[in-house]
From TrEMBL:
GO biological process per UniProt: gluconeogenesis; glucose 6-phosphate metabolic process; glycolytic process
Organism: Propionibacterium cyclohexanicum
Taxonomic superkingdom: Bacteria
Gene3D superfamilies in alphabetical order: 1.10.1390.10, Glucose-6-phosphate isomerase like protein, domain 1
Function: Catalyzes the reversible isomerization of glucose-6-phosphate to fructose-6-phosphate.
CDD domains in UniProt: SIS_PGI_1, SIS_PGI_2
Protein name as it appears in the record: Glucose-6-phosphate isomerase
C-alpha cells in the first residue's frame, strides 16, 4: 500500500497559506479590474455551465490549487479508481461506480472479469423487468397490474432512489406511484402502507448486504402485512404454496448478497444484483435505482446513465486547470483548510431537487468524515464539511440571513435551470423567470454586498446602518443547466461524486469505507434487550444510558 502524500507538506499548501495571508478577498475590485473574470472562470462540463468566478480564485490561487492537485497526485488516484485498483484499502475493494454507466461494449477487466459486461447484463434484465411492470404484463397474485412500487431500503439504498424519483417526476409513468420506506420507526411502514391495495403493490427490498437491521425488519413487516391483508380479504388461503406465490408476485430484491435474498424467500430470478465495488452511496445508478427505472422507463434511464458517463469522461480526461469537479473539490479544500469553513450549502433552485441536499449529505459526509488516511495514519488537517441545504427560494426565507450576514464563511452552490418543467404564467409574467431572478440576485448580493455608504444613501438612520450593511465576499458557485432532464440529473450526481473524490484524494483519506457507522449499530443490538426488560442487559449499560432507558421505560404506556 502506498502512503498518501501529506498535503500540508507540499509547496502548494505553503503557497496557499501565503496567498491567504497576503491577498484580501475583494470581489468588487477583482471584477472591476478584470472585465474577463466572469468569462475566464466559467467552465463547461457536459450540459452544466459552472461559474466559479465568485470564488476565492485569482490566477495565483488557481495555480496553487492546480499545483496542490499535482503534488498529491490527484490524477494518479483518479486513474487508479477508473482502472479498478483496490483503492478502498480497508475493505480491499475496487471503487468502480463509474463502470455502472460505461457504455455497452466498453471493457474493463478486473480480477479477470469484464465488469462492464456484467453491468449491462443486469441493466438489460432490470430494463426488461421495468417494461413488464410498466406495460401491466407483470401482475400481482390476483392478476391486477402493479400501481404502487414500494422501495424498502436505507442510506444509499434509499436516499438516491427517493431523490431521483422526486427529481424526475415529470418523466414518470402516470400509472405507477413509488413510495420509499426507510426508517425503522414503525410509523414509516404504517403511513406508507395504510392506503395501499395489496393486490397491486410491488415491494423492492433494496440492500447491498441484505443484513441491515432497518431494512430487514421492514421487509419482514411488509411480508407479514401483505400475507395478512391478502388472507384477511380471502384473496389467498393460508397454504404455504399460495403464500409463496404471493411473495413471488409482490416482492423483488436488489442486493449483492443473493444467498440472503433466497433465505428471505424471494426467488433469485426476481433479484437484481450489483457488486462489492459499488459503495452504497454511489449506487443509485445500479439496480438500486430499480424503483426509479420502473417509474421513468429504460430510455430515460439510459439518458440518466449517459449524463453520469459524460461527467466521468470530463473528470477523467480534462486537464485539472479547467476540470470542473476537480476545481470545485480543490476550492472546497481551500475553504475548509485555509478559511475555516465548516459547512457547505447546496441550494437548488428547483423544487424537484428538494431531496438533493439530503442525498449529498450521505455522499459527502459518509465519504469524507474521516480522521485517518488510507494508510491508517492520522490526518493533520480538517476534513469533511457538513453539507446541507434546501431549495431556493424557500431557504431565502429561512436560513439565508446567516449566509449573508453571519460570521462564518459558508461556501454555497446555487443550481438553476433555464427551462422549467411547467412553464406557468401569472399576470402575464413568466413565473420561472421571476423564480430565477432570485437565483441570480442571491449570488450577486453574497458576492458584492452593500457598503455603509450605500446604506446611508438610501436614507437609513445612522444608528441602524451597521445592521443593514452586507460585507459581501461570500463565495458561491453557480451551476446552470438547460433543464432538469434525466441526463442533467446524472451529470449533477457525477459532478458531486467527483468533487467528493477530489477532496478525499487531497486529504489522503479513503472516501469509500464507512466504519464510523458500525459502533452505534452494534450498541443498538446490545441495548435492545434492555428495552424489553432484560435486567442484565440494563445493568451492563453506563449510568447515563441506564437512566435514560429507565426513564423511557417509566414513560411507556404499556
Ligand atoms: O449504515 C451505513 C450503510 O452501510 C450505508 O453505507 C449504506 O448505504 C446503508 O448502510 C445501507 O446498507 P445496505 O444497502 O447494505 O442495506
Amino acid at each position: 500500500m502506498t502512503s498518501p502524500v501529506d498535503p500540508t507538506t507540499t509547496p502548494a499548501w505553503a503557497a496557499l497559506g501565503e496567498l491567504r495571508d497576503r491577498l484580501s478577498v475583494d470581489f468588487r475590485s477583482w471584477f472591476d479590474s478584470d472585465p474577463a473574470r466572469a468569462k475566464n472562470y466559467t467552465f463547461r462540463a457536459g450540459d452544466l455551465i459552472v461559474d466559479l468566478s465568485k470564488n476565492y480564485l485569482t490566477p495565483e490561487i488557481h495555480g496553487a490549487l492546480v499545483g496542490l492537485a499535482e503534488q498529491v497526485d490527484l490524477a494518479g488516484r483518479r486513474d487508479a479508481m477508473f482502472g479498478g485498483a483496490k483503492i478502498n484499502t480497508t475493505e480491499n475493494r475496487s471503487v468502480l461506480h463509474t463502470a455502472l454507466r460505461a457504455p455497452a461494449g466498453a471493457q474493463l477487466v478486473v480480477d479477470g472479469v469484464d465488469v462492464v459486461a456484467q453491468v449491462h447484463e443486469v441493466l438489460d434484465r432490470a430494463g426488461a423487468f421495468a417494461e413488464r411492470i410498466r406495460s401491466g404484463e407483470w401482475t400481482g397474485v390476483t392478476g391486477k397490474p402493479i400501481s404502487t412500487v414500494i422501495n424498502i431500503g436505507i442510506g444509499g439504498s434509499d436516499l438516491g432512489p427517493v431523490m431521483v424519483y422526486e427529481a424526475l417526476k415529470p418523466y414518470k409513468s402516470d400509472t405507477i406511484e413509488c413510495r420509499f420506506i426507510s426508517n425503522i420507526d414503525p410509523t414509516d411502514m404504517f403511513e406508507k402502507t395504510r392506503d395501499v391495495d395489496p393486490e397491486t403493490v410491488l415491494f423492492i427490498i433494496a440492500s447491498k448486504t441484505f443484513t441491515t437491521l432497518e431494512t430487514m425488519t421492514n421487509a419482514r413487516m411488509a411480508k407479514n402485512w401483505l400475507i395478512n391483508s391478502l388472507e384477511h380479504s380471502g384473496t389467498i388461503d393460508g397454504s404455504s404454496a399460495q403464500r409463496a406465490r404471493a411473495i413471488a408476485r409482490h416482492f423483488v430484491a436488489v442486493s449483492t448478497n443473493l444467498e440472503k435474498v433466497a433465505e428471505f424467500g424471494i426467488d433469485t430470478d426476481n433479484a437484481f444484483g450489483f457488486w462489492d465495488w459499488v459503495g452504497g452511496r454511489y449506487s443509485v445508478d445500479s439496480s438500486v435505482g430499480l424503483a426509479d427505472l420502473v417509474a421513468v422507463g429504460p430510455q430515460n434511464w439510459a439518458d440518466f446513465l449517459a449524463g453520469f458517463h459524460e461527467i466521468d469522461e470530463h473528470f477523467r480526461t480534462t486537464p485539472i486547470d479547467h476540470n470542473v469537479p476537480a476545481l470545485m473539490g480543490l476550492l472546497n479544500v481551500l475553504y475548509v483548510n485555509f478559511y475555516g469553513a465548516q459547512s457547505h450549502a447546496v441550494l437548488p433552485y428547483s423544487q424537484y431537487l428538494h431531496r438533493f441536499p439530503a442525498y449529498l449529505q450521505q455522499l459527502t459526509m459518509e465519504s469524507n468524515g474521516k480522521s485517518t488516511r488510507w494508510d491508517s495514519s492520522a490526518v493533520d488537517t480538517q476534513t469533511g464539511e457538513v453539507f446541507w441545504g434546501e431549495p431556493g427560494t424557500n431557504g431565502q426565507h429561512a436560513f439565508y440571513q446567516l449566509l449573508h450576514q453571519g460570521t462564518r464563511v459558508i461556501p454555497a452552490d446555487f443550481i438553476g435551470f433555464a427551462n422549467p418543467a411547467h412553464p406557468l404564467r401569472e399576470g402575464g409574467q413568466d413565473v420561472h423567470a421571476l423564480f430565477m431572478s432570485n437565483y441570480f440576485a442571491q449570488t450577486k448580493a453574497l458576492a458584492f454586498g452593500k457598503t455603509a455608504d450605500e446604506v446611508r444613501a438610501e436614507g437609513t438612520p445612522e444608528e441602524i446602518v451597521p445592521a443593514r450593511v452586507f460585507s459581501g465576499n461570500r463565495p458561491t458557485t453557480s451551476i446552470l443547466a438547460p433543464t432538469l432532464s434525466p441526463k442533467v440529473l446524472g451529470e449533477l450526481i457525477a459532478l458531486y461524486e467527483h468533487i467528493t473524490f477530489t477532496e478525499g484524494a487531497v486529504w489522503g483519506i479513503n472516501s469509500f469505507d464507512q466504519w464510523g457507522v458500525e459502533l452505534g449499530k452494534k450498541l443498538a443490538l446490545q441495548i435492545a434487550p434492555a428495552l424489553g426488560g432484560d435486567e442484565q442487559a440494563l445493568d451492563a449499560q453506563d449510568t447515563s444510558t441506564r437512566l435514560l432507558i429507565e426513564n423511557y421505560t417509566s414513560l411507556r404506556a404499556d
